[in-house]
Input
Amino acid sequence: MGERMLLRGNEVIAEAAIRAGCQCYFAYPITPQAELLEHMAKNMPRLGRTFIQAESEIAAISMVYGAASVGVRTMTSSSSPGISLKQEGISYLAGSNLPAVIVNIVRGGPGLGDIAPAQCDYFQATKGGGHGDYHMIVLAPSTVPEAGELTMLAFDLADQYRTPVMILADGMLGQMMEPVELPEPIDVASLPAKEWATTGAKGRDPNVILSFDLDPEVLKKMNLALQKRYRQIEAKEVRYEEAATEDADILIAAYGTVARIAKSVVRMASAEGIKLGLFRPITLWPFPYQPLKELADRVKTVLTVEMSAGQMWEDVRLAVAERANTPFYGEMGGVVPTPRRILSEVRKHAS
Amino acid sequence: MPVSTEKMVKVFGRPASLTEARFTYCPGCHHGILTRIIAQIIDELGIVERTVGIAPVGCAVFAYLWYRCDAIQASHGRASAVATGVKRANPNLIVFAYQGDGDFASIGTAESIHAANRGENITVIFVNNQVYGMTGGEMAPTSLVGQKTTTTPDGRDPALFGYPIRFSEMIAQLDAPVYVTRQALYDTKRIVDATKAINKAFTNQLEGKGYSLVEVLATCPTNWRMKPTEANKHVAEVVTKVFPLGDLIDRG
Output
């Protein structure tokens, strides 16, 4: 492990990307992820790597598409309105089987919204925000150190499955400072060669990167190949955390910043004699349906708490499938729920 | 009198960089000539093993099928941004973007101008046929005043839809580009000139000089509702009045 540093979430994600061997980073300024862009602007050129402040979010994701085609590790980052603009490119990345990492430091929406922390982009991230039948792997850190770990993991998963991977964080995580110890940089030369990349057709047939075929039967086969890979990801890459679930009567289902707050609520509830546990999905796609389903058989209530109107709540209800009550408490517009407020919701459901 | 083939010299043939795949272009369309010229230049410069072509959306969407080099199919208008990503990730590659007028000068306006303004060391071929060919002949940003298209059935009215955009002139105002030129293909002389221009645009990149743009006035006999010969005449006599031929800048 490297030295211990005090960094913001945005800086940790940037530094982790550099250590994961990100060779090309392209982005457009937006709050609350500016520190990420600025860390890359400062450090990428010093390392002989590519940093471009693109003319737009669409241009940035298209540059990612080009760099990913050549086989290098590449990333872009933004916040909600900018991520909406990137959806075209994300769909093309998925359709063309290209690995890339996309960071969304989510802010309040819809429209211009505000610059406060929110979780209102869950649907867009997990259900395929662009056109066509595709998914991204979506990783949701709940602490600054975890943001670093998951960013490094994101590059590995992207390469392994030839798919775009999203880091879905929020403005609070992006701005918060915590001590972190990042791993030493990887040796880029040790990464497996990408035989499919457009590196020049020397001594082989030309490689072509595309998401296109006018023959419906061929395009169907391309889609089936994607779906097959998604089933593999669902089987192997589900990640989640449980806290105090062993003898819980009530569970909070929450991710990211809200899950971190909910950990305090679990301790507060325990002091009141309420048996409260926490279920925290780390992969939002693939969502941990099966482990939550098994837990739902042992509790009376699964309370979903989000900084949204109830987006992950839909997946929680799919998993629980009426094995338990599934109430919801959410805040919107960038309002962050306090532990006390969540605890009062928990009390409503404690017998 | 029988002719002996022994003394014949082959002066013209299929470029080695062209695949055997048949073009999908309509008869009389200039895309085919242009595609062949690019393949010839790739041959002449001996760069097929390090070239990456960027195919657009539009009539040239299948461009990846016709060259024996690596290729990427880009989203509509973004070819210059994709080319930027490729070139920055691997500067040893020779990268060319092949874009139509709708792709380059309408939906891709931002990407086209900013790749030029950064002076990306790439080669852009911009095909200006004043119409959206693949989608059925709608108005392009370059459509002439009065030109009848499926979306301007009474002719392009500048009061409603503006004037044909001289995009290459806009790019020629920037400080970074090395070479910006407008060429045509309506007769042999123009084809020879265009071939030289494309050679220069690739050579500039090979020599690390920076951004080169070759705009090529092309015909679309199908959507112009003209015979190929009429279409060639139309370019020579009408289109070149609005889009004059020649080099706009040459800082090579």
